[in-house]
Amino acid sequence: CASLTPSGGQHSLQNQLSDLDNWQVRGKLSVVTPDDSMTGYLTWEQEKRHYDLFISGPFGAGASRLSGNHKQAELTLPGWDKARTARSPEALMLQYMGWNFPVSDIRYWVKGQPSPAGKPAAEFDEHGLLSRLQQHGWDIRYSRYQQHNGYWLPGLIKISGYDFRFVFSIKEWTLNG
Amino acid sequence: NDAALADFMNKVKSLQTMEADFEQTTRDGMGRVLQQMTGRLVVAKPGKMRWSTNEPFEQLVVSDGEMVWIYDMDLEQVTLRDMDQRVQETPALLLTGEATDVEKSFLIDEEKTSSDHVFQLVPKDPSQLFESLEFHYRGKQISRMMIFDAAGQITEIAFSNARINHDIDSQAFVFDVPEGVDVIDGRHGR
Question: What is the mean pLDDT of residues B59-74?
Fold first, then answer.
């Protein structure tokens, strides 16, 4: 039921997001670390527990790819001719990119939903959509909500914490059944 | 080889300015399209550039020859960078770079096909982000650029509506930071 404004309030909107575990986003990612900053184009495919992230700089230079599931993660950075693997994506990103990048949480945060693990402090707007979230030491702010196939999903997500800052600008949501 | 180097240098030297639309497609090793975007490129000697991409991935990169502004409307953010950091990330800067830079940092080969004159550039410094570049010329005009990176990804940039050596308003290479945008200073020593 596509309505002009979100209906049903916070709980039903959040429950709706829980059964959304097969999606793809295309957009942009900006990363500011304690000693560097980069902006890239992002494609993130999530299918149940399997994820596949592709990040490339402008002009297709410096493409990085992170993929895996709850058992194993694999990372390919620009200039590498073979991927590195580890049990968790967070370990790989920290070791090889120096990013404190909570992939397993962002999988939920990007939808406008707290991660099921851990106690979130959440603020909702007048429509019942998540406007601000604090979880696992991170501060997440949401804006540019739009409707896609009946789901209300954020277009701009700013995540900061531990001297890191990730900004996701999502241009395309693709929701698979 | 020397002949290829000389030919390529002539192309670089003969280019004072260029304006063109472009279509950029990045494919992985198996040919799967990973990313596609369109945009417009304006370049002028020495090292000046205006590179803008259209929806859905709007971005504007402006270089005045010394500094580079990367303005991202979607992310509400402007990043400042030094020029030298950029050649690695934006090979198009080679089009208007100083000819000596090209000779110093690349091994060059050439091949003539029925329609194009193709130059292959392999960086002498292996730590470059790309493994090799190709510049395809049709007469004086560049028609296509190819970027091959070590992971097997290939980015193709096809140019169209190219205009070479026309006057360009110098305002094209000036950037004013808009109101309310986050500014990230990524220059050395900052």
Answer: 89
Chain B residue whose CA is closest to A65: B151
Q: Which residues of B touch A39 (CB under 8 A)?
A: 59, 70, 72, 75, 77, 79
Say if the Cβ atoms of A79 and B149 lie within 8 Å. yes
Write down the pLDDT at residue B98: 67
Whether B99 shows a pLDDT value over 70: the answer reads no
The beta-carbon neighbor of B59 closest among A26, A37, A58 is A58
- The complex's ipTM? 0.72
Q: What is the pLDDT of residue A78?
A: 79
Residues β-bridged to residue B90:
none
Element (H, E) at A103: helix A103-109
Q: Do A61 and B77 touch (CB under 8 A)?
A: no
**Cis peptide, bond prior to residue B56, ω within 30 of zero:** yes
pLDDT 10s digits, A35-85: 888 878 899 999 999 999 998 876 555 678 999 999 999 999 877 889 999
Site from A54, A59, A77, A143 to mutate, B interface, most B CB atoms within 10 angstroms: A59
Q: Which residue of A has its CA nearest to B149?
A: A79
